[in-house]
Amino acid sequence: MLSTIPIRYVEPVYRPPSEAESLILPITDGCSWNHCTFCEMYTAPQKRFRARDADEVLESVRRTGESVGGEVRRVFLADGDALVLPTRRLLEVLNAIRVHLPAVRRVSTYCLPRNLRRKSVDELRELAAAGLSIAYVGAESGDDEVLERVNKGETFESTRAALDKLGAAGITRSVMILNGLAGPDLSWRHAENSARLLNATQPEYLATLVVSFPLGEERFRGGFPGWRPLSLRELFLEMERLLEHLELRRTVFRSDHASNWLILKGTLGADKERLLGQVRQALADPASAPLRPAWARGL
Question: What is the domain class of 137-286 according to CATH?
Answer without folding.
Answer: alpha beta
